[in-house]
Design a protein that fits this description.
The complex is a heterodimer of chains A (about 170) and B (about 375).
Chain A: H1 76-85, H2 93-116, H3 123-126, H4 129-135, H5 137-167
Helix pairs in contact in A: 1-2, 4-5
Chain B: E1 2-8, E2 11-16, E3 28-36, H1 39-45, E4 62-69, E5 81-84, E6 87-88, E7 116-117, E8 134-137, E9 145-146, H2 153-158, H3 162-172, E10 180-184, H4 188-199, E11 204-209, H5 212-222, E12 225-228, H6 236-243, E13 249-254, H7 264-272, H8 281-289, E14 290-298, H9 311-317, E15 320-323, H10 328-340, E16 350-355, H11 359-367, E17 375-379
Parallel strand pairs in B: 10-11, 10-13, 11-12, 13-14, 14-15, 16-17
Antiparallel strand pairs in B: 1-2, 3-4, 3-8, 3-17, 4-5, 5-9, 6-7
Helix pairs in contact in B: 3-4, 3-10, 4-5, 6-8
The chains are: A mainly alpha (about 170), B alpha/beta (about 375).
Bound molecules: nicotinamide-adenine-dinucleotide and zinc ion (2 copies).
């Protein structure tokens, strides 16, 4: 591939937003305000969303934000783990690692929930394998074949071990 | 309504969900007309962002028609076709007042470090997102912006994230006329960042990725030099040093984030074992390939824990690192002008239109970089626009 380029200065808009004053300072363009300069730094929106679902709150803030998302409130075992995580600050592994664990537990709960509703999740479709099949067939088939080979191989090894164990039985 | 739903790492589906409701007097409900899948969604899709709950709907890049408004909404009305910035922002807190709409203090209860983002895990507020027929949009007086007469909704939907993020990446790089800027990542965000570098007067723009088709696209779209870090070089840092008379680039932009390839140790610890908040390969390269006293601008998204970066070099080289979630609302007026004047052509990035019903295939296609995909747009059964 060749990098033959047009003269950038002839591109539409070259340099129109150039700003010699934008030497790295913070924040950009708007006047910087520290908390003590702000006459109203604790200002909150007039209305607060009623808290009618369980919202887990970071201990690094004093209150529930004026609006919040109400999707998927904590439930079940994953919910218990999430509640535990929120005892720790965002600065602590005690917060993030349990949350990752809860996410994985939640996946299993999701499958149980599906089955409970008489729905067997179509994992092949959910993983979008149709796209792989359509656009990346060779690599996809190779990958699946490898997974299959490894699985069959493991089963064979495990069963052979079992036979060995039986050999020494009286 | 039909909505995308997360079921677990790399497992999503389209499913029927209840309609969203007004929960706060400043809420609006919009009927979504356009919605994109973003590189940021891939961090969630891969299961790398803590507190990503099963059953959640993703999607932070969308526009739609206002269907219903709460009693305190005055700035938009039913029937308006609006584009919705990806940040949930109140417009009146200490941070919003300074134009930091990506850092609102009244939109996320679960974490103090990040503002609310539509459809972006509970760590970013727990909002269901716009990859659905309908979405709840809080603070409707602040975020949603009526799409100007004559603007193509395909352009408008990219003004919700990709254009402002690419632009802010260039802005945060503090580019001065004639600067050499290196952009890591030739996804939609990196390509847009490369294009915007010229607006700030860059003298030379170099983009680095591993996907040839994306490099080719970037070369044409952004008129930048494009190199493949797997094929054109052994060591990207040395490559950039050689390209810049061994001084380093004036500014470097990280438009890759946590899903970075290119360093086995980073990939294993960051993406497989989750021992760090994603793979910091691009950030590592950025710090080591910028000149002494240079600026590293970070828009690539990393998780909330820790990353392995060469901090000693930040110190010894006297670097400035600037990063943020884009402040979409702050940048919109200028960027709408650029689109209307033909300076930026966002919709050229859209390569795929995928029905919401096939959202799982869409995620796979974009994530695995299949079929020369740059930017996928979801299309909706109910949106006849
Ligand atoms: N800060 C913000 O406001 C904001 C907004 C939108 C997106 N983002 C982030 O920007 C990043 C890019 O988004 P996108 O939609 O373009 O994603 P994308 O996944 O389409 O693009 C990322 C690109 O980086 C390339 N890449 C991987 N490892 C690399 C490396 N070591 N060096 C160079 N390139 C490498 C990939 O091949 C890919 O083309 C993501 O992390 C996303 O979360 C941030
Ligand atoms: Zn995005
Ligand atoms: Zn705010």
């Amino acid at each position: 591939m060749e990098n033959t380029l047009r003269d950038p200065q002839k591109l539409p808009g070259w340099g129109i937003d150039a700003n010699p004053d934008n030497d790295p300072t913070y924040p950009m363009r708007e006047p910087r305000l520290n908390v003590s300069q702000d006459p109203d730094s604790k200002h909150r929106p007039a209305s607060l969303q009623p808290v009618d679902v369980e919202v887990l709150k970071s201990i690094e803030r004093p209150n529930v934000s004026a609006v919040f998302g109400e999707s998927s409130p904590p439930v079940g075992l994953s919910g218990m783990i999430r509640r535990f995580a929120f005892k720790y600050s965002e600065s602590h592994y005690g917060h993030w690692l349990p949350l990752l664990l809860a996410d994985r537990v939640n996946v299993v709960e999701g499958i149980i929930e599906d089955l409970g509703q008489g729905k067997v999740p179509n994992i092949f479709a959910e993983k979008g394998y149709a796209a792989e099949w359509k656009h990346n067939r060779t690599a996809f088939v190779a990958k699946m074949a490898t997974i299959a080979a490894v699985t069959i191989g493991s089963i064979l090894i495990l069963t052979r071990d079992n036979e060995k164990k039986h050999k020494y039985r009286y | 309504m039909l909505a995308m739903e997360y079921r677990g790492p790399k497992r999503v589906r389209a499913t029927q969900k209840p309609m969203p409701e007004i929960k706060h007097p400043q809420d609006a409900i919009v009927r979504v007309t356009r919605s994109c899948i973003c590189g940021s969604d891939l961090h969630l899709y891969n299961g790398n962002v803590p507190d990503t709950r099963v059953g959640m709907t993703f999607g932070h890049e969308f526009c739609g028609i206002v269907e219903e408004v709460g009693p305190e909404v005055t700035k938009v009305k039913v029937g308006d076709h609006v584009l919705v910035p990806f940040n949930v922002a109140c417009g009146e807190c200490h941070f919003c007042k300074q134009g930091m709409f990506g850092n609102c203090h009244e939109s996320n209860t679960q974490a103090s470090a990040v503002g609310g983002i539509f459809g972006y895990s509970h760590t970013a507020g727990g909002y269901n997102g716009g990859q659905a027929e309908y979405a709840r949009v809080p603070y409707a007086n602040v975020g949603p912006t009526v799409i100007p007469e004559g603007m193509d909704p395909d352009d408008a939907v990219l003004l919700t994230d990709v254009v402002p993020t690419g632009y802010q990446a260039a802005e945060m790089a503090g580019i001065q006329k004639g600067d050499t800027v290196v952009v890591f990542g030739a996804g939609p965000v990196g390509i847009m960042a490369a294009r915007c570098c010229w607006l700030f007067g860059a003298g030379r723009v170099i983009i680095i990725d591993k996907e040839d088709y994306r490099l080719e696209f970037a070369r044409n779209y952004a008129n930048c030099e494009a190199y493949n870090f797997e094929k054109d070089m052994d060591d990207p840092v040395v490559f950039i040093k050689k390209q810049t008379d061994f001084m380093g680039a004036d500014c470097v932009i990280d438009a890759v984030g946590a899903e970075a390839a290119g360093n086995a140790m980073q990939t294993i610890t960051g993406r497989k074992l989750l021992l760090q908040a994603g793979s910091a390969t691009a950030m590592h390269w950025a710090i080591n390939s910028v000149k002494k006293g240079g600026v590293v601008s970070v828009v690539g998204v990393y998780g909330p824990t820790d990353n392995l970066i060469p901090m000693g070099n930040v110190l010894n080289k006297g670097l400035t690192i600037r990063g943020n979630q884009a402040s979409v609302k702050r940048l919109l007026p200028r960027l709408i002008e650029h689109v209307q004047n033909g300076v930026i052509n966002p919709k050229a990035l859209i390569t795929h239109r995928i029905p919401l019903e096939e959202v799982a295939d869409g995620y796979r296609l974009f994530s695995a970089k299949l079929d020369n995909c740059i930017k996928p747009l979801l299309v909706f059964p109910s949106a006849n626009i």
